[in-house]
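Appendix B. Raw example, untouched.
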Amino acid sequence: MYEDKTLVCKECGQEFVFTAGEQEFYAERGFQNEPQRCKACRDARKAASRGPREYFTATCASCGGEARVPFEPKSDRPVYCSDCFARMRGER
């Protein structure tokens, strides 16, 4: 029923494909309008509206090194640096 359509991004002017699957998704959700921006421009707009992310510094509970995290650490929960966190997730 749906066929891929080539649209032009109103932000950057590049062509992008509005796939049949995306069209079906839009129809299921009741969206009336086709997308106006390509995925890269949509993602950039979302990121810009969120503002810069704030990072906090903590001491890694495993190695004692510096850990930069996007949340304010609480003293009752351990915080791990990215290396130790990745190591712990790999062990499971």
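End of appendix B.
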